[in-house]
User: Fold Odorant-binding protein 56e from Culex quinquefasciatus.
Amino acid sequence: MNRWQLAVAVVFFLAAHAFAQTDEEVLEIRRNLAQSCKQREGASDGDVEGLITAVEPVTRVQKCLQSCVQQQHGVSDGRRFLKEGYLALMRVVVGTDQLRQRIVEEAADECIGVENEDRCQLAIDIMICVKQALQKRGLRSKE
Assistant:
């Protein structure tokens, strides 16, 4: 998988799936990304399947799988949410749509203070913050 595919893939995990064209595109993005972090985190096929189908992570391995995705792409440094990394990835998804750009920027601003010493729990905290921020602005995630 090349860097472009990975960049697009991580966006899903931060609610970009709200903008996805089809369910099949979402699943393919998830599948590609899950494989890149599976071995590193010691995840099972079931953990990967949960990631692919957007089941909220519950176990430590599932949360760490999510963290791997976020850290790989600069959305998190393992201690806090990184607004610029999130925005860079989201720009790929929203393109020139100014309304969506504004919504994404507002969501990022709302999540800028998300921090946690536990990188795996941080991933979930970021997911929740972004999801809620986008939903407040009228975007519903496909889960």
User: Anything to note?
Assistant: Residues 14 and 47 are 18 Å apart (CA to CA). DSSP finds seven helices and no strands in the chain. Helices lie at 3-12, 23-41, 45-52, 60-72, 83-94, 98-111, 119-136. The chain has one domain: 26-136.
